[in-house]
Amino acid sequence: MSKGRKRKRKNRKHEKGSSAIMFIVVIFCAVMGVKTFSLHQESRELTKKQEALAVRMDSEEKRKAELEELEKYMQTKKYMEEVAKSKLGLVYPNEILIQPENK
């Protein structure tokens, strides 16, 4: 064989190898781009969920504080008197209960 043919064979092999490597690199970049895009979308969705949960947590904290206040109020004498009067119809011995006439 002549030197020209050997060089052509080496160049063809080199070109085929370079083309294969370039193809693999392009496929890898495409896969990484798609994965990056999907992770970015997932990150945005999780951020939205986190914000919604933070708002919900704030409202639940307020509700908890209201319930604690109600619990304290329900342990007072004033509340017990209101329940005794409204639900049980009880009155103090010196108290006069006036009821409206039924029509």
Task: Provide an overview of this structure.
By secondary structure, the chain is mainly α. The protein has helices spanning 3-74, 77-86. The model has no long low-confidence stretch (mean pLDDT 87).
Q: Main attributes?
A:
single chain, 103 residues, mainly alpha, 80% helix, rod-shaped
The number of distinct helices, counting runs of at least 4 residues, comes to 2
Biggest sheet character: none
- Average residue-wise pLDDT: 87
First-to-last CA distance: 126 Å
Quantity of strands, as a count: 0
Outline the low-pLDDT stretches.
Answer: none
Structural class: mainly alpha
Gyration radius, rounded: 41 Å
Based on Cα principal axes, name the global outline: rod-shaped
Query: Secondary-structure element order, as H and E?
Result: HH
Strand content: under 5%
In short:
The protein is an all-alpha fold. The chain has helices at 3-74, 77-86. It contains two helices and no strands.
